[in-house]
Backbone:
């Protein structure tokens, strides 16, 4: 069983046909009574080009040309253009008790022109025949007496057909469907891509951590990490503080200021600046307090002492 | 009901559902992964910090680098005692330039300063320096 093959019964629809009572969906083949045919030899390569120019080929033939749809295909050297009015077809089918939802595909007799090698009778008066590869309706009286008659059956079903769903039932046109579906799909792709990016970023960070752990296996243990952190963070903090103090004190030496003595150990520091006069000493104390050395004080005239814990 | 009649609507609804599913997927990824990622990034940052600290304060080359402090001033002015991972150095009669150079070098080394003493004698300086690594 193939889902691609349309194996529904094919019903030949013609203007004098009897009313139908259908219990299942069918394919419909329309006689030339429901379409207008043009065959043209055009220097076109692609089907979309032919479809684009189809309306212009029937210019002036129809009163309401915008109501018409077109089926275009290539047959050997010629392009076949079939113009049809979906609304008129639908109304006709309804008049024969064939509801649009009972119609699967619509075909045109011209598409099966090779199958009309012998006439197919349409009721009591008319017949369908293929003349010069064009399917036409002729009176049965015009047929020769010894003509073979072919019975119409499902083997006449062409490969391509059209649907009438745009007329009844469907609210959206094909163009609107393509537009909306394209829009939603595009956003869906963008959301998927963004979601994937977050997953990927997270994986990259995990991989980075794995690499670090492989290079430094000692960090795998939480206890070791805490121990390393406790040891080296304390050292880092103390040593940075010592160096900051020395740099700040060095920055406080200006003209008229000399170091008398300096002592720094693990816990505290003590410095004695010798200034050229009391004015310089006072200025130095102000500078020290600005650098948050609040213990700075002038002792014995022009000597400044700073003693603080680290 | 003939679903074929509503093929267009079905296509649009299907694509809309796909978009909504993608949106939920994205939001789910953002909420779950962001938390996880922040936590992992924090851990990575901590690891890097620990590695840097370890490299700085447990550098095996420090022992060699410290020797520079012996040659930074004329040998007659230095009294040098290096035992294992400890150093005691005394510098006598350093001029201000030598003192400056010595202090800059001490501060740039990844050693733990145990004691640093500077005393001025008229125009020269004496320095006592103890450190470990």
Residues:
């Amino acid at each position: 069983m193939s889902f691609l093959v349309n194996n529904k019964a094919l019903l030949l629809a013609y203007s004098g046909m009897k009313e139908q009572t259908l219990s299942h969906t069918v394919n419909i083949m329309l006689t030339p009574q429901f379409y207008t045919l043009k065959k043209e030899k055009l220097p076109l390569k692609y089907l979309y080009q032919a479809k684009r120019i189809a309306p212009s080929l029937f210019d002036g033939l129809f009163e309401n040309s915008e109501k018409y749809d077109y089926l275009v295909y290539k047959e050997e050297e010629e392009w076949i253009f079939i113009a049809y009015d979906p609304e008129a077809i639908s109304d006709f089918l309804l008049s024969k008790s064939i509801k649009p939802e009972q119609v699967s595909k619509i075909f045109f007799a011209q598409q099966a022109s090779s199958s009309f090698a012998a006439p197919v009778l349409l009721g009591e008066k008319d017949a369908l025949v293929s003349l010069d590869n064009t399917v036409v309706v002729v009176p049965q009286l015009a047929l020769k007496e010894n003509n073979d008659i072919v019975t119409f059956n499902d083997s006449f079903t062409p490969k391509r057909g059209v649907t009438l769903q745009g007329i009844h039932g469907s609210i959206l046109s094909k163009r609107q469907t393509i537009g909306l579906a394209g829009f939603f799909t595009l956003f869906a792709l963008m959301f998927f891509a963004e979601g994937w990016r977050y997953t990927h970023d997270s994986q990259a960070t995990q991989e980075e951590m794995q690499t670090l752990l492989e290079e430094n296996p000692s960090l795998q243990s939480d206890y070791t990490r805490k121990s390393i952190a406790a040891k080296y963070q304390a050292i880092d903090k103390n040593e940075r503080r010592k160096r900051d103090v020395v740099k700040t004190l060095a920055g406080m030496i200006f003209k008229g200021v000399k170091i008398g003595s300096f002592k720094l150990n693990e816990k505290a520091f003590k410095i004695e600046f010798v200034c050229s006069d009391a004015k310089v000493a006072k200025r130095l104390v102000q500078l020290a307090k600005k650098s948050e050395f609040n213990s700075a004080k002038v002792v014995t005239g022009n000597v400044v002492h700073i003693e603080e814990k680290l | 009901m003939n679903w074929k009649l509503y093929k267009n609507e079905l296509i649009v609804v299907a694509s809309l559902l796909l978009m909504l599913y993608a949106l939920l997927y994205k939001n789910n990824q953002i909420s779950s992964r962001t938390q996880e990622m922040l936590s992992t990034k924090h851990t990575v940052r901590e690891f890097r910090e620990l590695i840097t600290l370890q490299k700085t304060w447990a550098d095996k080359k420090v022992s060699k680098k410290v020797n520079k402090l012996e040659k930074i001033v004329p040998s007659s002015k230095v009294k040098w005692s290096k035992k294992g991972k400890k150093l005691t150095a005394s510098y006598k009669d350093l001029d201000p330039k030598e003192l400056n150079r010595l202090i800059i070098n001490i501060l740039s080394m990844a050693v733990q300063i145990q004691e640093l003493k500077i005393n001025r004698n008229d125009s020269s300086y004496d320095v006592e320096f103890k450190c470990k690594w």
